[in-house]
C-alpha cells in the first residue's frame, strides 16, 4: 500500500458571473447573483469597496477549479469574518506578545557586514517607534531574550487597542506573523512603509544568506507565496 499523501481534489467552478453588491451588510460578493459564504457559513461581505473588488477578481480569475492558494485576499477575509471579528481581543493579545520578541530587537554579533546591514535597515524603524509612540525598543546582539520596558510594551499595545476595524486588525496580525515584527506591521498600518519595503526589511538576514550561498528554488517559491499574503494584508489596510 502506498503511503503517498494525495492532494485533495479542488472543487469545480460552478458559476459564470461574479459581482459586488452594496447591501446593509457591506459589499457582498455574489456568484451568479447568489451570496458567497465563508467556511463557517458567514456572509462574504467587506466593509470597503476596493478590497471587495479584488476579492471578486480572485473569484472571477479561477479556471475550471477553485484553488484557494491563488486567492490570498479571500482567504484573509474569511479569517476576519470567521475568527477575528468574533474575538478581536484574542488577536490583540497575540499581537501584544510580538511586542516582546520583535525581530528588529535581535541583532547579529558577527560578521561585521551583516551587523552593519541590520543597523542600516532596522535602526530607522527603532527611531520611528520612539518618535511615533514615545517607546524605546531595547536592542541586543545574540540569541538571549531582550526584555522590553513595561512602558514600551504598554505603548505598542495601546496602539493595537486603537484598531477597532477587524479587517485592519487581521491585516496587522498577518503582516506581523509573516515578518516576525510588530514594528514593521505597524509601520505599514501607519503609512510609514509600504508592504514591499517592510518585506525587504524583514528579510535582511535571509537575503544575506542568499548572497553567500545562492537561492534555493523551493525556498524562493515559498517566499513568493508568503509575499502574496503580505500584499493581501496591505490591501485590507489600505481599504
In words, what does this structure look like?
The structure is a single chain. This protein has 239 residues and is an alpha+beta fold. The protein has two domains: 18-67, ATP12-like; 86-238, ATP12 ATPase (ATP12-like fold, Orthogonal Bundle). It is built from ten helices and six strands. The strands form two sheets. Strands 1, 2, 3 and 4 form a four-stranded antiparallel sheet that branches. A two-stranded parallel ribbon has the order 5-6. Strand 1 (18-23) and strand 2 form a beta hairpin. The radius of gyration is 20 Å and the shape is globular.
List the SSEs and their pairings:
Blueprint: E1 18-23, E2 26-31, E3 34-35, E4 45-46, H1 49-60, H2 72-82, H3 88-98, E5 106-107, H4 112-133, E6 140-141, H5 150-161, H6 166-179, H7 182-189, H8 195-202, H9 204-213, H10 217-238
Parallel strand pairs: 5-6
Antiparallel strand pairs: 1-2, 2-3, 2-4
